[in-house]
Structure formats: structure tokens, C-alpha cells
Design a protein that fits this description.
The structure holds 2 protein chains of 2 kinds. Chain A is mainly beta. Chain A has 2 helices and 25 strands. In chain B, helix 2 packs antiparallel against helix 5. Classes of the chains: A mainly beta, B alpha+beta. Strand 10 of chain A pairs parallel with strand 4 of chain B, so a sheet runs across the interface.
Chain lengths: 349, 192
Amino acid sequence: MKEWYLPNPPNITSGYENDAISEYAQSNFTDVLETMFSDTVLLCNSDLSEQTEIKCIIQGNMSNSQSKSIERTVLFPIGSSVVGKYIYFNNSYWLLTGYPGNNKSYEKIVATLCTFKLRWQASSGKIIERWLAPTNITNSMSGTDRNSTLIMGDNYYYFYLPTDNETKKLKRDMRFPIDFDDAAEPEIYSLDNKKIIGSNYQSSNKGGNLLLTVSLDTFNKDKDKQITLEDGTKVWIADYISPTPTPVEPTTPTDVFATISGRTDLNVGYSRTYSATFKDADGNSLTDVIYSWNIVSSFNSKITSTESNGKITLTINDQTLVGQTFKLQVIVDGNLLSEIEIKVSQSLY
Amino acid sequence: MSNMSKASEYKSNVIELLMKNDMVVKLLNPTPNENLDLSEVLLGGTFDINGETVTEQGYIFDYYFIDDTITDTKSFIMVEIDMPEIKNGIFVSYILHLYICSNKDIVRLSEHSVPTLSQIKAEGYMGNRVDALCDAIDRMLNGNNAMKAGNIGDVIPYGQYRQIFTPNNKFYGMRLTYKVRNENQVDVNCHV
């Protein structure tokens, strides 16, 4: 071996070069970490509650394919990396996947870009969030399964989640929204498979990931809800069970403005539902206003009304009333706040 | 009115009865749309509301398929008519098929479903959603009020009266079959 390529002068007292190689193997790497070729990342646990700054070298930044572009090879000081942890750099979270190996100088592990934050509600009611790292992003599904009578959506996703106390509880048939948070009706996916063996390295204290397979399910308007998290973000949660609300004393502010929503024509034989919304003088929405509905007409006995959850549903079954009008009013503290005129129209069918 | 027109009229009358049946509507559990009438939500279609195009898939159809990809957990009723024979040139047999199906996730009724099991029991129904729908429809067509309900004619259960109907692996349902007897209709306005 030549002496000139060694970064530090070799130990010349023993007369053997292998001592120098062993002595400087890891320090050579830490020296490189002090150069411009290193990166500083945040090493995070699975729920992001613990974050540690650490230097490493990130390779594979210049890939030539879409699938490779979401993977990096990360070189850490030996003993730093654990599968199932995240690293945060370039405004993104990357999940450490693949068993880490070392060459006595540094440790090498694969990091996969996390592209979506999966959310679900634990049995305790707490909302759990984990960044997922997709795998096998290309598949041959057309997106729909067409038989002669019904057309169903058809899609699968495969992704990694870190193994932790919450993800271990995931069970088949659990449902997750995988769509944009502002979707009117998000696509819901059901957990089909949870693979442990292929990426579980906990026996060697190297952490682990779960490989999950989810398939497209259907949105359930009675179970899948959009909620607001503590930070104000509105997100969808599948099979959401709302906590028991704390009773709030209803109030009747002095400056209240009401708006009645609903169509102004009522077809004979069919029901139409009307709702009321309230705002204060500054345009802020009010939710605890005590109000009542009132109908003003010359044929009140022929109007069937039912109230539920603050809304009123009206039905008229008398064809002779076509062309007549009546008023629907919102009353607060005996005061008329809003009214609309509704016209009785022909039966639709 | 021709036989074919009569068949369409029967379908239309049955659908109108379905839409006015409170238990059927309750079990279909349609998602309300503040811009649309309940009938428009149930029948589906494309509507122009204040210059904006609104589309509803619907829940009740007068044909044996559902257009558009199903993205919600829903129940559907498809109404179809067969005319297998004309007897002695006088009497036409209209075979009325009602295909009732629900997404498997919502077939079971419980105290957490919509409607709840208690709600349907209170009205004299029992079983799962598909069972209750079949019951509600059968009472509507096969019961004493069938004749008065609206121009359906002599309706009797027919053939495989109630048969399992599973259009795919995500839906479960039943097919109800009835026979409606009527006179052979010939259009008197023959144009040469």
C-alpha cells in the first residue's frame, strides 16, 4: 500500500499498515462528514416526537428514473441508523428501509421518500399519523372493475410504515382515506395485507418496517368524517367515532343575521329540506343560536313539515295548490330574522 | 297504449311508489343535496342549478345496470320488466323484476347504522337492510294496498319469487319477481 493516499500519516512505529487502516477507518468517514459533501439531517422516531440532528452523506441524488428518484442511499457513522426511523431533509421525510450494513468505516442504509401522511383513529380515540413510503408505485390496474351491472373502482397501493406500538395494532379491513385533504369525498382504502417478516429486524436491534397492501374501498358518508386537528388542519378520518361532546350553553346574541338555504320551488308530492345559518355583525359564523321555524300561508294544513337537527323538511301533496306561494321564516326570540318565499310547482314524475 | 308503452308505464309507476315509500327511502339512505329534490337524488341525472352542472348517480333505476363508477357505500334498486308471452292473443304477461342490492359494508343493521335496527323494528320490520327493503317492497306490491297504490294492476309473486342477487363481490342483494296481468294492448292508430 502506498502512503500518499492515506489522509493522515500512518503509524510508523509498528511497521504494519493494517494497524493504521483499522485505527483510522471510522475517523476517515467522520472527516468526510466535516466537508461540503455531507448533509445535516434530522433523525426522527416514528411519531416525530424525538428529533436529533445528525450528519451523513446522501447518495443517489441524480437518478435517471422516477422509481429511483424517490430512493437515496444514506451513509451514517456506524450504529446511527435504525430501520423504521425517518430522516428529514430537503423539506421531506424519508423512511429508512432495508437492513443497514457497514464496511467497518461507515454504515449504509436506504431511505425512501415519504409521499403521504396516513391517518387513522386509534381505539383510544386519538388520531394517529404516520408518513408512508410507497413501493411498487407502477401497477397495471385500469382503475375500474367493470362487470355488466356495476362498475367498481379498482386500485392497490403498497407502502411501508415504521413498526411501532400503534402500527402493530393495524388490522385487516381497517380503512384509511388516501386522497387530498380537501377532497369532497376522499377515496377510501381498506387494509388487505400486513407483512412483517421481510422487513423486521428488531431481533438484531435494527428496527423494522411493515409492508402494507391496501385496496380501493368505497366512501361511507355516515362513517368517514372530515375533522379539524389541534393545529387547525382539516383532514379526513375513516370510520371516525366522535368523542362525547361537552355540553355548551346555547346563546342568543343580540346582533344575529340569518340565511335560509333551500330551493324556492316545492314540487307537489316530494319533500324538500331547508336549513338556516347564522352570522354576527362581523360576518363570523354562529352555531349556538336558539331558533324556530315558522310557515306563513293560507293553506298551512296542507303543508307537512318535519324538523330534524335544526333543519325543516316540507311536503305538499295537493295538486290544486300549484302556482300558490307561501313563506318560510326563521324566528329568534320572537323576532323574524329571515324568510323566503316558496312556490308550489308541478309534480316532477 | 302499446304493450311496450304499458311496460314502461308499469316501471314508472313502481318507481314512483318506491320513491314515496318512507321505509324504502329510509333504507336507501340517500345523501341529501340541498340543491336537489329527493326524487332527483333518488333517480339521479345531470341538473343545471344556478348555472352550475350538478350530477347525481341515483339510487333507483328503470334499467338493469348502474352507470358511473360506484364510489360510495350505497344501496340500489333496479326495476325491469320482461314480457315472455301473450296468451291467446289477449292477455300479456308482464314479469316485474326488482333487483335490490347494498354494499356489503352496510347490509348489517345495528344501533350504529342508518337507519338503526331499533328504528326499523319500531315500524314492524326486521332483518338486515336487504331483508327490510325486500319486505317494504313486497308489502307495497303484494299487499292489500297494491291496487290502490297506483295503477299497477293484478300483481302476484311469480316464479323464483325471491332469489339471491350478487352482482359482484362487494354487493349483496335479492331479486324479487312478480307477475302483472293485463290485456294485450294494440295501438289503434295504424299508419299505412
